[in-house]
């Protein structure tokens, strides 16, 4: 289990894209990493766009990037809510400063935009936020997977297999 001893945060809020949260979470867990779901309220159960629940084990306020090896930001409509909280933006900025893996898929790019970490970074996302990504200074590509250093991005659920592998590889330092 090449990711034994690694710890990852997965951000949650209502209307996350179910597959874009759970597929990477299980992918990382199957390689041995510990994943903690984090939301605005510890203990609250958030519901995905298609009805799959996710209970926050921690609140964003109680987490520090220094205690973790990577962070996963799912898509759906949740990123538009998540990006409004300074605790989340600080977490993402701290992961970026430490060059630890940041996984973002679909609309999750909104969180990275609000954290102001995309200037000059090559990424992908759902085409619906391409303009937002480019206006934030990102170089946008319409590809299933784009990795620029520690930032791993994908467009949508069909891209989950290469995205999950790339995130695990980054956590493993490969």
TrEMBL record:
- Read off the InterPro entries from this record: C56_PfpI-like, Class_I_gatase-like, DJ-1/PfpI
**UniProt keyword Acetylation, yes or no:** no
EC number of the protein = 3.2.-.-
Q: Which domain of life is it from?
A: Bacteria
Q: What GO biological process term is on the record, naming one?
A: proteolysis
Q: Which residues form the DJ-1/PfpI domain?
A: 6-167
The alphabetical list of record keywords is: Glycosidase, Hydrolase, Protease
Database matches in SUPFAM superfamilies: Class I glutamine amidotransferase-like
MF terms (GO), sorted A to Z: hydrolase activity, acting on glycosyl bonds; peptidase activity
Q: Does the keyword Protease apply?
A: yes
Instruction: Please state which protein family the record places this protein in.
Output: Belongs to the peptidase C56 family.
Protein name, entry field = Protease I
Q: What species does this protein belong to?
A: Paenibacillus silagei
